[in-house]
Amino acid sequence: MRDERAAADDTTLAASYTEMTELILPNDTNNLGRALGGAVLHWMDICGAIAAMRFSRRQCVTASMDHVDFIAPIDLGEVAVLEAYVFNTGRTSVDVKVDVRAENPKTGEERRTTTSFLTFVALDEEGTPTPVPPLESPTPEEEALRAEATEERREQLENVADRLA
């Protein structure tokens, strides 16, 4: 059994940090040789779920994904790099920021391709929503990431509302 100190350390933003990579292969591309949006969304969901589960130590299911703009393509042969971390919690929910960038594996050049915010719900052994611990950001770097994600999400939601108005 883990000691109480280790369990407390699991409730930090840093403990939830997850990075995944996917090599863009022909089965993941459209007829232009670019990553399918659905494939990217799938990877974002997986990366976000891992961050949520690392944080909550529970099975987590996707409750929502905020607006997604694909601002740059990821081309055949490039690497999709996904990074996710928990930036907020509710009673049974976990909010996760997921950033995606494209990397040219030959040059190391990278570019931002999309960001979204996902909400997951933690489940107990019976599949019922269960409480999650409060998020801790014990370092200035973690607190800065948390504040940045909160502000970016607020701005993104405002922009979507403006577009719909």
UniProtKB/TrEMBL annotation:
Broadest EC class? hydrolase
Indicate the secretion signal residues.
none
Originating organism: Halobaculum lipolyticum
| Composition skew (Basic and acidic residues), residue ranges | 143-165
**Which UniProt keywords are present, listed alphabetically?**
Hydrolase
Q: What is its EC number?
A: 3.1.2.20
The family database entries (InterPro entries) matched by this protein are listed as:
Cytosol_ACT (IPR040170), HOTDOG_ACOT (IPR033120), HotDog_dom_sf (IPR029069), Thioestr_dom (IPR006683)
Where are the annotated segments for Disordered? 124-165
PANTHER family for this protein: ACYL COENZYME A THIOESTER HYDROLASE (PTHR11049), CYTOSOLIC ACYL COENZYME A THIOESTER HYDROLASE (PTHR11049:SF24)
Q: Where is the HotDog ACOT-type domain?
A: 14-126
Could you tell me what this protein is called?
Answer: Acyl-CoA thioesterase
MF GO annotations: fatty acyl-CoA hydrolase activity
